[in-house]
């Protein structure tokens, strides 16, 4: 009887721990830039999943760079957690791996977000540009803009 009780207890404990665990489910996201001008340099893309980490140096969940070929670029991100994410990118025209700014600190290179920001005169907020990542293989097309657009 004690052995049966112990086996039942262990089985129920195992089932209980499985039902309360919250595994992170991830998928692949494809980010495309179909029209980049000028046709030179690199594209850098960072993916964020938290509001307090958005656009904070080294707080992204993934970051990649891609070369521009025939005015286009595509980046494939694996293991992106499903849910709200925000994507920030810039066109590194001179390929120096720095986001260039002018003498008063305004963007000198084109940039893009997962959604167009509400206001162009400040850094966008995570909530303004975040999207729902819900499907493996989801495609996000982005378009660069300059500061004064």
Q: In the CATH classification, which architecture applies?
A: Sandwich
Please mark out the parts with pLDDT under 50 across 5 or more consecutive residues, or reply none. Answer: none
End-to-end Cα distance, whole Å, is 77 Å
CATH topology: Immunoglobulin-like
User: Compute the gyration radius: what is it?
Assistant: 21 Å
Strand tally, please?
8
Tell me what the structure shows.
This protein is α+β, with helices and mostly antiparallel strands and 149 residues long. It has a single domain, classed as Immunoglobulin-like (Sandwich). Strands 2, 3, 5, 6 and 7 form a 5-stranded antiparallel sheet that branches. A 3-stranded mixed sheet has the order 4-1-8, with no helix packed on it. The longest helix has 19 residues. The radius of gyration is 21 Å and the shape is elongated. The model has no long low-confidence stretch (mean pLDDT 89).
